[in-house]
Amino acid sequence: MKVLEGIYQLITPFPQYTLAEAKQLRRELEERPRVTKGLPYVLPYLIKGGGETILVDCGWNTEEAYRALAEGMREHGSAPEEVTKLVVTHVHPDHYGMAGRLKQVSDCEVILHERDAEVIKARYMAPRHLTEEMARFMRQHGVPELKAPAMSQGSLGMLGHVAPVPPDRAVTGGEVIKAGDFEFQIIWTPGHSPGHICLYEPNRKVLFTGDHILPTITPNVSIHAQNQGNPLGDYMRSLEVVRKLDVEYVLPAHEFDTRELKRRIEEIHNHHLARLEEMYRCIDRGGSTAWEVASRVQWTTGRLDEFEPFMQRAAVGETLAHLEYLFEMGRVAKVMRDGVLYWLPV
């Protein structure tokens, strides 16, 4: 789909979907926006200008996704072999999975943020230590002994759909990528991942948001074994960074494109404020673990005990991110009891 002259929206399906199903859902979600359980597709973007062929994100490394990418590029007079630069908004497998394959067929320059580059080896090349670390992390936050192993290994099935490759250029934010008269500013927007980036083209008022801002759903913002600190605080501050931009075209990596940047930022901001209050109310006076709080939250897509292990892990991680933000605000305290972390209202 042509967005503007030289900018085209593509579509690649998740492993459990065909391209035809992904295209149908893309149309349905734009016509009738709604929250879905799981994501059916990724929206990479093709940029052509000044002899450059740039992709922003790519998709999972499956045959169906690769064929979808090639078909979409062909519709706009291009091909995977012609890619000169692959800009990865963040290193999650649906955005980065095909990177190694594209590098092999095109020798493109792979560009991503240095913070996400740091986790590639542990996450995709030698994950055994990470799963052990994740299991300990789950137990520390109150996950029952029987559930911790499955939750810590919940993402291992994804590894077969990722062709990892180190970046040729690790950015920090503030760099500019030129393609003809396009000038894409790299904006560091940590939160959904430590190294998430957006691309802003000020002349055409275009913002590629990756998962930072999506039109209907909110991105998962989690604390886990590879993401400590206060990611929700980072995310909320990153929202304010992009709120200041003059944007007409918001191009996300999921759902559909929109023109409502500031309205959507306000909705996301209010969502997290409401979720903070809900989580605060879920804490017992004597203290609760993140697992206990997550079990009491009314999640948009159901209850914690109904989720698959990977989604349970994401819910616990998101709960921790909100609890840590409350801690930074001075509204909760935390205490370790027999190796398990408890959160207490102040």
Quick overview of this protein structure:
With 346 residues, this protein is an alpha/beta fold. The chain has 12 helices and 16 strands. Helices cover 37% and strands 20% of the residues.
Overview of the structural elements:
There is one protein chain. 37% of the residues lie in helices and 20% in strands. The model has no long low-confidence stretch (mean pLDDT 95). It has a seven-stranded mixed sheet with strand order 1-2-5-6-7-8-9. Strands 10-11-12-13-14 form a five-stranded mixed sheet, with no helix packed on it. A two-stranded antiparallel ribbon has the order 3-4. It is built from twelve helices and 16 strands. The protein starts with a strand and ends with a strand. The chain is globular, with a radius of gyration of 20 Å.
Q: What would you report as the Rg, rounded to the nearest angstrom?
A: 20 Å
- Arithmetic mean of pLDDT: 95
What's the tally of helices?
12
Helix content: 25-40%
The tally of strands reads 16
Largest sheet: 7 strands, mixed
Strand content: 15-25%
